[in-house]
Amino acid sequence: MELREYLSIRRAYNLVRQGAAAPARLTFSEFAILCRLDVAGGSLKTSDIAEYQGSLRPTMTHRTKHLATLGLIERVKGDADRRNVVCQITDQGREVVRDLCAKTCSRIPVGQALSRVTPDRMRKYVDAMGSVSCMSGELILLGLYAYDRDACSVTDLVDGLGLLQPTVSMTVTSLVDDGYLHRVQVEGSPRSAQVALTESGEEIAKSITTRVEALVVRRKSRSN
Predict the structure, then answer these.
(1) What are phi and psi of 87, to 5 degrees?
(2) Phi and psi dihedrals of 76, rounded to 5?
(3) Which architecture, in CATH terms, is 3-129?
């Protein structure tokens, strides 16, 4: 998978998520769990889902309980090991997957990576992407790494990543404080500043990019 494809989908889903009602608003990781269960076509242990997303079991328990509360999956204790919960997508969950995939496709502008992808294909992209979880800070580092420019403004990052302006502003400040970004003064505009990656920030972005580019999106088997 290419980095520009990953960012295109994450941007589109961020925009879709902003328009969802708060109780039913899913994180990208939760959306990916639904896609994984839907693609799998059967039940999966929470430990397997946690391993897939690289998450601790308490984190996965929280995510799956939220999905179960919304009626999107069922959580059942395993027969052999009662400590391990088995998850299975519900019919309502499948409907939500179809709806979110279609909406995500619709938010990718013409000319941008994957602008012609189908909802079914989107489901498989999201399934694959669930194993590379990125919070807003990591998305900002990836965005700056992917952009063909030395520095970007907060507005550029808001538009390019589909994140809310307050989220970007607060996250950029944190990244600057942590040494992953530095501010660049715009010539002729002393009150305007852009941000660019530091060496440490670029190393993190490169590391995540390597993981993204290693993702394999399942394809339909070709008939003879």
Answers:
(1) -115, 145
(2) -130, 140
(3) Orthogonal Bundle (1.10)
